Protein: DNA 3'-5' helicase
Amino acid sequence: MLNLNLDQLNPEQRQATTHIDGPLLILAGAGSGKTRVITTRIAYLIQRGIKPESILAVSFTNKAATEMKERVAGVTGPKLAKQVYLSTFHSLGADILRRDIDALGYKKPFAILDQGDQNAIIRDALKEFRLDPKIVDPGRILSIISKAKMGFCEPKDLPELRHDPLTQYAQKIDGFYKKALKGLNAVDFDDLICLPVHIFEQHEKIRQKYAKKFQYVMVDEYQDTNMLQLLFLNHLVKDHQNLCVVGDDDQSIYGFRGAVAENILEFERQFEGTVMVKLEQNYRSTNLILDAANAVIANNEVRKDKALWSAAGDGEKLRYIECDDDREEAEYVAAEIERYKLDYDLDYSDFAILYRVNPQSRVFEEALRTYSIPYTVLGGQEFFDRKEVKDFVAYLRACANPNDEVSIRRIVNVPPRGIGPTLLERISEFAHVNKWTFRRALNELARDPSRVEGIGHKVSDKLSDLVDMLDDFGDRFEAAEQDPTVRLAELGRDVLKRTHMINHILSTEKNPRIARRRVDNVEEILSSLAYYQDRSGGTLQKFLTRIALDRSDMNDKSEEQKGVKLMTLHSSKGLEFPCVFLVGMEEEYLPHIRSMNNPQDLSEERRLAYVGITRAKRHLTLTSAATRMRYGKAEDREPSRFLAEIPPETIDIQRAGDAQSLADQREAQNQKYLSALKAQIFKS
Ligand code: ATP
Ligand code: MG
Structure:
């Protein structure tokens, strides 16, 4: 009944796929079929009679998890594939907390804070301790607190930060921060993994429940896991040891977020009886691309040596194009996409433009628009940081969860209801002394405004409207959970109408073009909600959790449309494209300016270059600009040191101008050919 053909695998892949019990490590280079082994192995386990719901496969992004599910469905059919638990660490953690967070004294449902909310709490803490945010930077404090969570310890126990003067402040603020979160019945992103580990440590019964459920656990991109994730996994697998991990130490690129490559390098030591499989054949790229990638990564000192080869032939040489400035670079890439598309009969979706940091996408977007080339930017986070988007999402959150104090506080005066900061403080105080939630306090005030000084009739009428509205939509969204025919996006649109948010945007934004864009952004959430409901049949609560977990999910919809993909090197991990442009190959971009002075950071930058090069199947172009506009001034740039590490015999070096004249020559040739053809046709 299953459509599983192991003959398509090479002997090592087959060995890994058919391994059933006990720890398994697949340590192999890029494009060698690691992810493919995971998906085939899931199908194989199902074929061997293992229940699909007892299989857990963890990947790095929701998108990768969805893709895996599709690949498994190709072999097992969608019904069985649906039962396999395919997810990211964070959504798995969120699911565990949804069921069991009460074991730690939280209420259900809980809220997930975003970075803005976290920052606000750190600022409260600074006020409380009379610290100056100019000296004690809230962003850095948060990053230390986060690092500590990922190491499952306190800030003061972080060895690498012991001498950092900020660490002692972080230690002090850590307690305040944790208490504040609990008071808000909210968790941050790291808590989604940290709190389940606390539950597992304190409640053996709950741990056993999950350990029993997940009999076979697999993890893709294992080189990017951190200490906390290792602990988490260990709680799940320590009874049966059925853990299969795949990864490539050369692609470990999240060290800056606490990932420890030791997890993969020490796996054999940590899990006794590990079977290790190495894969050496690369199925993705041609050999010249691999030679370049291998040569670059060979400059890193600490690594496991790997020999990658491909049966796909040498292929085309790489190209390095030096452009005069950023505009020329962007236009060159756009023109080349058109040319490749015609010459090799490719689709726009076969192309990717990869860069080091998100803002680099802007010039390329402009050029692609000029050429009318369809494109999608992946993982741009700014969307969710826009005020109107945050406001509307907060409304939806407040409807879905009356305990979500952060969201309710955010919208209580949007559109203005006459509740300024002072009044807001008084209401919080009123809630606090009565030991009520903020929402309950609003309910009481709507009924009897005299209980807090300064609330007149006008304000109290508006408060009544607000709490009625929240109650009403809370009920309607809850009812929708039982009735899949209710369109969540329609309900969302009703929320917009009832709150007059669109009017509010149009009346506060003077510039009509910007106003239009802000309204479009709000609309975008509704269409995303509609798409989500159609695709996964989920509830509002689940949609909100998903966008809190993986903001890039908002782009899922557009990703399916044809178009050139633009993304950072970090988000390109695991993906592949026939034609790749690695742009901005300059010092201070790659390697990034912050990583240039520390050998470890520099190695991580080199691994990023390796990840970028190995995304390409057939065509790879690297570009740099000699000058770049920054802060309104043209700035001289220097080509990346990694370019010099690419063997000269694998790469052609051109200037964008030369390439232009080549293109002109080609155009002339085409014209000649066409007229010859015409002449022939007319003669016969
Ligand atoms: P990365 O390190 O970038 O995550 P990976 O090791 O996970 O790469 P995959 O993405 O699984 O590699 O595979 C790379 C490409 O090679 C895919 O297109 C896959 O379908 C193909 N491939 C893998 N194994 C085989 C095989 N035995 N025969 C044909 N194609 C294969
Ligand atoms: Mg992979």
Observations:
- The chain has four domains: 11-100+192-279, 113-184, 290-374+562-670, 384-554.
